[in-house]
Amino acid sequence: MGPDRSALRTDLRPHGALTGRRGKGGPMRHTHSGGGLFPHPENRDMFTELLRQVIDDYYRWHAQCAEAAAPALIDPTHEAVADCPAGPAGDMDAVASLVRELSGRLAHQATPVPSPLYLAHMTPDIPVAASLAYLCAMLYNPNNVTPETAPVTTELEHEVSDDLCRLIGYQLGTGWAHLSSGGSSANFEALWIARNLRSVPSAAEAHPAAADLVADRSPLVLANMPVPQVLDLLAALSARGLLPEVGRLAAEQRREANTSGTLLLAQSAHYTWDRCADLLGLGPADVEKVELTQTHRVDVRALGRRVRALLANRQPILAVVAMCGSSGEGAVDDLDAILQLRADCERRFGASFYVHVDAAFGGYCRSLWLRPDGTMAPFEDRPLDGSGARMKPEVHAAFRALHLADSVTVDPHKSGHSPYPAGGLVFRDRRAVSLVARESMYFGQGNGTRIPFGPHTLEGGRPGAAAAAVWAAHRQIGLHSQGYGRLLGGCVATAQRLHKRFSETGRTGPTATYGVDSEVISCFAPDLNILNLSVGPRESECRRVGGGAFGRLALDSILAEAADEPLTSLYVSGNSFTGRPLPGGVEQVLRLCTMKELGPAALDVVELRLRAAVSRSVAKVGTDGVAARPVSVPASAKEWK
Amino acid sequence: MGPDRSALRTDLRPHGALTGRRGKGGPMRHTHSGGGLFPHPENRDMFTELLRQVIDDYYRWHAQCAEAAAPALIDPTHEAVADCPAGPAGDMDAVASLVRELSGRLAHQATPVPSPLYLAHMTPDIPVAASLAYLCAMLYNPNNVTPETAPVTTELEHEVSDDLCRLIGYQLGTGWAHLSSGGSSANFEALWIARNLRSVPSAAEAHPAAADLVADRSPLVLANMPVPQVLDLLAALSARGLLPEVGRLAAEQRREANTSGTLLLAQSAHYTWDRCADLLGLGPADVEKVELTQTHRVDVRALGRRVRALLANRQPILAVVAMCGSSGEGAVDDLDAILQLRADCERRFGASFYVHVDAAFGGYCRSLWLRPDGTMAPFEDRPLDGSGARMKPEVHAAFRALHLADSVTVDPHKSGHSPYPAGGLVFRDRRAVSLVARESMYFGQGNGTRIPFGPHTLEGGRPGAAAAAVWAAHRQIGLHSQGYGRLLGGCVATAQRLHKRFSETGRTGPTATYGVDSEVISCFAPDLNILNLSVGPRESECRRVGGGAFGRLALDSILAEAADEPLTSLYVSGNSFTGRPLPGGVEQVLRLCTMKELGPAALDVVELRLRAAVSRSVAKVGTDGVAARPVSVPASAKEWK
């Protein structure tokens, strides 16, 4: 880069590094947020200076590109560069005006995600390294569909692929990961692959030149072959050059059969899973939503009953999808028990099923136990220095089992603190993607040592800048317990502290000032960093509005307030317990995603604001006479946990 | 923004505005590329300064967010802001080192897309307004899944939606568009919707409370109801509250039937269409690839034969997909004739089919004829001032018919000159998306006047920064003949000029210096701005390598050279004519995407470099003795056009 690089280095002392640590529950000893991790007045100049250098590099490169043809010019009086339209396109005044308008609108109206009062959605604040890396790479507009258009950022995506394998616990070189536009797309792709894998053994049996590879398998086992065996079969088919033919046969059989198998997943699954099933052409009868426990995990005993019944009837199981941090509740399904169920089925029936984990939200929390050497620490009540999070043993057990799942969705743009768009899909065994590979006619030959992204991903093209941002976030924060672990531990601890505040029935003082005796109760102790709060009037007044409608009313009231005062308001979101209503039929609750750690004072403010908003909503209901069917709101959360 | 804003304004005079226009084929009168449209040394300071202001806004906003809770603090000695991990995360030295490494690698190794010698893929150079808008919005990390997380950029996406409707010719308020991660995803969504729409009438007939809505329709018509009638039916079902039930019934029927109907599309369709069919659960027999004309458009007579045969057999047609700028050839299918075919079928059978247009690459070229008032100009041989492009009348006719297609994929990140990721899907009638809407539990109630993006898009979450960039590009360049029209007309004109150079057999002088008499021939006159070149030895030596293997060899040779000298090399891509080999069995050809306008001198250099590279490849084959089956390469391109 420029000659001023060494001069700048002297200015690159750590700005805003934390000078002290907060004791348990005590006041903080420092006065700013995030040191050098997130934007802070002290790192603004550095951010600007780095970006100035990035722009210098970019403009220099651009000029070199434009001059590329010049040395070979036949006639030097000719001009070898592109000719572009004049008129409004060339008007930098117009550009400045557009950019100013946009910047001004964003600075006044953007959702204040970095605010301690923003607890609504899974949007993270972006570390400076990730922002700078995205900005830097985006200028060169790389498309990670092929190294031909993105030599640098496809390389970074391969590094990120290794990172994500380490995060999940998959073996490097055997596992494989890639980025996607988001969790939805990653889930679509995982289920697409699971569906296609499932149908390969039967198709092999129907092919004369492949039938010997699956000889002596019962129809039940053919329809539900353990995934590693299917992958071995794929390799054998490939060695015989039969993969295209058998793949085609499998597609025909899927079309002719009335089912591709049953998809089993928790009722708490994200709404995108219904979309996914419909997209893939599953019928409604192919999707079974399994009931939930009181803490909104999938009921593994109920799941086991369904799985055994399907296998007893020789039905194919398309896949079991486990949630690792459900979108509504942050609930972590007992993956270890689900995998135990699978092992039992393999022992008892010789039959198995594909396990995909939707850890779009929760996956990065495995870093809470990740040692620097990549191994996972055993369970301890307080696994982390500093954050104060107390993880549940069954959550630890689920994360410990993650490396045995066949694939995992994990989104860097959620808990990975990367900017949008950065979903991710991680495979235990990279051979799984060979089945869906589609060759492109437009790209040159790869070097063969790495899986090319274009032919092996559902979307093909993806922005290289996203890979650069994830790469930088992973390196700035660190994929271990002292990096992401500390960051996310703080988020979990914050949810736990809020849970405690909304579990103690004595702590409702502030609402009294609003004259209505309302109640905000945490529905259950959170597995991760999402909290669900039931709201409504106290028992004395609680026979007036039914179905937990207060939740929706309070949410709308809070959102309306935020629209007036975007920068300093409280932000929460809603959730619906349609699958498993709370006692009293409560379905609509408030949902808090704690994507940041809050100190005690901030917790006070959140609690105060929340109780006040709920109290106002309840009072408004009383005034307006909005009333419906009877409801009983329990006096304490103890009944639910 | 800052107090220095007005001071800055005086510096915002247009930089680099074009001072002259180039006459037909003559030398250019100015010496730089793109004026204020693309990066240029003269607009670097402005770019930097605008970005500095953007960063100032962002840091000020971020600080305000962090202080959001402060005024409400109960105990002012408390600290209300987030507490984040110390350690490596806070180390700005590490950040600077990461960013420098990335910037340095990109500036030395990034694909030189702005180079006049870069003619490989559809990657555009990015206008400064689009880069700045992306950078600006990205800092606030908006997710356009809901206005709750992206109040500003969802608003911009609604404006972009109107832009794209105008571009295609759809009626505002009736049509609707949204952005996607790319063309693949947009195509998946379009076909998903087409498949589901197709099955609604039969399901309505099977529902006791809805059957009267489709009374007196024959099975043929039920399976192939004209799309506007299906949309009216949806509205009627919705009015009766029957949409969820009938939708479920339709999904069951789709699963039970052995086909969802036949998908008909050209053999030139992008490889992503095979992926799409497999994803949606179509069987191989459900996809019919229709043969091509000599210029690689779909053969509409052959398509008509297939459509009529299916309807005569009472088979459902899932959809007909027309290409508007095929990925390999830039071929524009005769959409007007396809729509005429549909009208004929409706008249003759009362039966119809869904028409989707994959205009991911070509859609923006409709701007060549767009008047400022949004109307489309009639055909003229030279429709544009300045660019010199001569559009074919049948290409104009296809674009004139675009507004009659049911949906169109059009990617701002291709010819729209926006950065990745920005695909787009445009619907003629917004009611089509109601069928696939999935409500989220987490968001508040919308204001009801606009279609919310989250529930009505396949992906749901999408980066708001992409919307900001597309919005800015549209406004900087202008969606009319003098804006995008002029820009893309220049790209088409460049392809046409190269076609001419490689159609004249006399112009092969430069290769003689390499001692091998080779030939580079344009396969056919391009519809848009992609050129296919057949390469090989002259007739005297042409019985040595078969199947056009020279194309692959020359491509690999050119790519290898580029890897050594990334900034100043020639870049082209490959294409395969497996569906319709050229005379002599030639399948592998070179492919040039001219995403920029080149002046005569740059064209000289491109021609020289290309002929030299091909000559070297041919010579290498001669030396190495790589030989295979006989092949006859015609002496001139005339036989093919």
Task: Give descriptors for this structure.
homodimer, 641 residues, alpha/beta, Aspartate Aminotransferase, domain 2, Aspartate Aminotransferase, domain 1, 3 domains, seven-stranded mixed β-sheet, four-stranded antiparallel β-sheet, 18 helices, disordered N terminus, disordered C terminus
- Number of folding domains of chain A? 3
Number of helices of chain A: 18
CATH architecture descriptor text of the largest domain in chain A: 3-Layer(aba) Sandwich
CATH C-level category of the largest domain in chain A: Alpha Beta
Strand content of chain A: 5-15%
Protein name (chains A, B): Aspartate aminotransferase family protein
Biased composition (Basic and acidic residues) (chains A, B): 1-14
InterPro entries (chains A, B): GrpII_AminoAcid_Decarb, PyrdxlP-dep_de-COase, PyrdxlP-dep_Trfase, PyrdxlP-dep_Trfase_major
GO molecular function, one term (chains A, B): pyridoxal phosphate binding
What features would you describe in this structure?
Chains A, B: It holds the Pfam family Pyridoxal_deC. Chains A, B: Residues 1-41 are annotated as: Disordered. Chains A, B: This is Aspartate aminotransferase family protein. Chains A, B: InterPro entries: GrpII_AminoAcid_Decarb, PyrdxlP-dep_de-COase, PyrdxlP-dep_Trfase, PyrdxlP-dep_Trfase_major. Chains A, B: Residues 1-14 have a biased composition (Basic and acidic residues). 2 copies of one chain form a homodimer. Chain A has 641 residues and is of the alpha/beta class. The first copy, chain A, folds into 3 domains: 38-70; 151-437 and 452-490, Type I PLP-dependent aspartate aminotransferase-like (Major domain) (Aspartate Aminotransferase, domain 2); 502-640, Aspartate Aminotransferase, domain 1 (Alpha-Beta Complex). Helices cover 39% and strands 9% of the residues of chain A. Chain A has helices spanning 5-9, 44-66, 92-109, 128-139, 151-168, 183-198, 200-206, 219-223, 227-239, 243-256, 272-279, 300-312, 335-349, 393-400, 464-477, 484-501, 549-564, 600-624; strands at residues 176-180, 262-266, 287-290, 317-323, 355-358, 407-409, 423-427, 518-522, 530-537, 573-576, 588-593. A 7-stranded mixed beta sheet of chain A has the order 1-7-6-5-4-2-3, sandwiched between helices. The first copy, chain A, has a 4-stranded antiparallel beta sheet with strand order 8-9-11-10. In chain A, helix 5 (151-168) crosses helix 15 and helix 12 packs parallel to helix 13 (335-349). Chain A is globular. Chains A and B meet through helix 1, helix 2, helix 3, helix 4 and helix 5 of A and helix 1, helix 2, helix 3, helix 4 and helix 5 of B.
